[in-house]
Amino acid sequence: MTDELFREDATLLECRARVTVADAQGVQLDRSVFYPQGGGQAGDAGWLVLADGRMLAVADTRKGAGPGEIVHLLAPGADAALLRPGDELTARIDAARRRAHMRFHTATHLLCALVPHPVDGCSITAAHARLDFHTAEPLDKAALSAGIARLVAEAHPVRHRWISEAELDANPQLVRSMSVQPPRGQGRVRVLEIAGVDLQPCGGTHVANTAEIGAVVVTKVEKKSAMTRRVILGFAEAAAGRG
Fold this sequence. Notes:
Elements: E1 3-4, E2 14-23, E3 26-29, E4 31-32, E5 46-49, E6 55-63, E7 70-74, E8 88-93, H1 95-114, E9 119-124, E10 129-134, H2 141-153, E11 158-164, H3 165-170, E12 188-194, E13 198-201, E14 216-225, E15 228-235, H4 236-242
Parallel strand pairs: 1-4
Antiparallel strand pairs: 2-3, 2-8, 5-6, 5-8, 6-7, 9-10, 10-15, 11-12, 12-13, 14-15
Helix pairs in contact: 1-2
């Protein structure tokens, strides 16, 4: 199993690690700051820095076949044969990509607080984020953007904590997602709390305060089906550039 350092501190950009597996499928480490794709959030990219200074580019990060496994997928041209189990290296993420994921992921929690309907789809990338809400009600693009801006400006603290699976079972309303359920089997579940705004299970990476989200706006609201409304988020500067 990989020690998932990002679960406790999303601001870590690198760590020392030891190779446990290196083959055509990717590289596994005993510990990592790389977030694997999951819960709608894209995986991290970055570099594995060898002891001699050579760098192997990581194009994506995914969960492995076994429990607790994280696979670092090397970019084309990066040779896994340079690594052997037991080798020590530095795992370093693409900081700009991670920061975008953190800002968007936290913004989706604000959106959940503004739209009181279950979520039946989610995608968080460095370029945009989207949530699909299970509702037939129309959603107002301008009103949602204004709501997000207000919650960002109010600078609510963002923190995670762990609750037992029994606590989650006693509070099923905490689960907002219809498509992604909290992982079970470890006896505890990670929840993300935005003080006074939102509380729900989430294993992703987030900023420490809503003020750090910055200017995020709703770029589009789509009716995907009779009972699905899709809300797409973008960074305000990027949206202005497209306009």
